[in-house]
């Protein structure tokens, strides 16, 4: 148990380094909007989707309707449906932990889980602890941002780039391990085309849909 937890912690360190600072920024925003620290903790515990939590500050401050909040959350996080397809079999074998894994998958935990070797139950346990630790990092950072942000002012400009760096490193790692680079190249091309056609605000969902369809057809032809 201790060895698995240690491996999970080591794997989660890049997430910790980014989550703590980004969630602190979220906590500071909540404080500036007039919400106490326990609101940040409650939202992080129940919503737990970083990008949407930042948007939620504005929605709550403006008195937006529940329907507006729900629809915004669905549109912003629909990409998680595509992530989940990668680990359907893994989650099904995790028993009672399956629901927790489904509801705590983020961009970062997905990326880290993709780098784990296929080691059966050990891999499943590492995935669980990575998800659990990542959630703790975010909640701790959100509360710390509320409490310390106003006391110790500091400039966090550019700290969110650590997320981009994490994904670039993981992409390179997957590129080196992959037998075929066609899926990666297809994803890049489709993403660039969608970015040029529909713009940076709306390109993510259509690029995911098109890329998934193309890769499904490609895999069917290989078989």
From TrEMBL:
Broad class of where this protein is predominantly found: membrane
Transmembrane segments: 12-30, 50-75, 126-145, 151-172, 181-198, 204-220
Keyword Transmembrane helix: yes
GO biological process, one term: L-valine transmembrane transport
Key words of the record: Cell membrane, Membrane, Transmembrane, Transmembrane helix, Transport
Protein topology in the membrane: Multi-pass membrane protein
Any one of the GO CC terms: plasma membrane
Annotated compartments: Cell membrane
Family indicated by similarity: Belongs to the AzlC family.
Protein name: Membrane protein
Biological source species: Coprococcus eutactus
